[in-house]
Amino acid sequence: MSALLRNRNYVLLWLGQLVSSTGDWAFWLTLAYYTYAITHSILASGSMFLTSVIPGVLFGSLVGVFVDRWDRRRLMITVDCLRAVLLLPILLIHSAHMLWLLYVINFLLSSCGLFFNPARGALMPQLVSNDELLSANALGSVSTALPNVIGPLLAGFLLLLPGGLLTIVIGDSLSFLFSATMIFLIVSSPSESRPAPVDWVGSLWRVIDPGKIWREWVEGLAVVRRQRILIRLFGLFAITSLAECPVLVLLTPFTTNILHGNSAALGWLVMARGIGGLLGGLIVGSTHKFVRPTLLLLLGTLLAGGGYLLMFNVPWLPLDLACYGLTGICIVLLTAGSGTLLVQVTEDRYRGRVLASYVMLAEGSQLLALLLVSASSDRLGPLPWLELSGLLYLAATGVALLIRPSRLL
C-alpha cells in the first residue's frame, strides 16, 4: 500500500473521491432523514431512492458505450462540474410542497453518476500496476468508507442548525468541484490518453447515431456472454444489490420504530458502517499479496448475511453497531474482489461497457427491491424485508463458490 501512496496520479484521484464522497454521504443521509421526518412515510423515502436507480435501469448500460469512446479523465471532470451545478436548485426549496424538486435533482445527479463510476473503474488499471490493483481497489473503498464516518457526523451536527440542509448542499457542490480539480491535475501518458473520436461541432451525428450506439452496446454485451466468470460475477452482484436495497430504505424506520432511536442513533449506525469500511480497506490492503479476490467474495457474502440476520433479530444498539460495522468490512471485501476480477478479465476497450452493464444490473435489482419494499413496508413493517436481506447474502455465498473455485486460496 505504501507504493500506492507514492503514486501521484492515484493519490489525486483518491483524495478527490474522499472529499466528494464525504459531501455525498452528508447530503444523502440528510436527504433520507429529512424526507422521512416531514412525511413519516416509507413510501416517500423509498421514492427518493427510486429516483436514484431509475436512470441506471433506463440507460445505465448504454452509458458504457460513451465511456469507451471518450477520454475517461475528461469525462469525469465534466460530470463532477455538472453535478456541482445541479445541486444548486435545492437552495430554492423552502417547504415540503417542493419535494418534487428533490426527486428531479436526485434523478439528474444519478444520471451523471452513471458516467463517472465506470470511467473511474476503467481508468484504474492505467494508473496502477496489475499487482497493485486489488490494493488500489481496497484503498479506494477507504475513500468511500471514511466519509461514512465523517459525513454522518457533519450531517447530524448541521441538521441541528438553522439552514442545515442548505449548508450541506453547498458543501457537497464544492466537494464535486474539488474532485474535478484533483482529476484535472492527473497527468496522463500518451498510452493512457483516449481522445474522443468525435468532432463535436461538425460530426455531432456520430455521437448520437442510434445504429452505431446499438452495435457498440451489443458488442459490449457479447463480451459478458462469452466469459463464464463475468456471468457469475453479474449474478453475484445482482443478488447482493437486491439484498442491500431494503437496508438502505428501511434503516431509518428500523432505527426509529424498532431500536427506538433518533437521528443521533442513525448517525452512529452509519458511522459504524464507515469504520467497518475503513478496517476492511486496511485488511485487504495489507493482505492483497496473499489473498485472492475470489476468497474475498466468499467471506464478504457469508459474513454480511450472518451480520444482518443477527443485527435485525436482536435490536440492541451496541450489538447492532458491531453488526453493521461488520457489514461495512464485507462491502469492502465484495467491492475490492469483484472490481479487481472485472477489470482483470476484461480488455480495456470494453471495460466501460462491462462496468456500466454491471451498474445497470445493480440498479435493476435495486429498482425491483425498492418497488416491493416501498409498496409493502408501511403495511408489513421493516423487519421481514430486513431479514430477507441477510438471507439473500447467504444465498450469494453459493454463487461466490462458483467463481473460480480452484483459485479460492
Order of helices and strands: HHHHHHHHHHHHHHH
The CATH H-level homologous superfamily? MFS general substrate transporter like domains
Chain oligomer state: single chain
* Major sheet characteristics: none
Tally the helices: 15
CATH level-1 class: Mainly Alpha
Low-confidence stretches: 190-205
Structural class by helix and strand composition: mainly alpha
Overall pLDDT confidence? 81
Short description, anyone?
The protein has 409 residues and is mostly helical. 82% of the residues lie in helices and 0% in strands. About 4% of the residues have low confidence.
Written overview of the protein:
The structure is a single chain. The chain is mainly α and 409 residues long. The chain has one domain: MFS general substrate transporter like domains (Growth Hormone, Chain: A, Up-down Bundle), CATH 1.20.1250.20. It is built from 15 helices and no strands. The protein has helices at 2-5, 8-39, 42-69, 72-86, 99-127, 133-158, 164-184, 204-208, 210-226, 228-258, 263-287, 293-313, 317-344, 348-380, 383-402. The chain is globular and about 50 Å long. The two termini are 21 Å apart. The model is unreliable at 190-205 (pLDDT under 50).
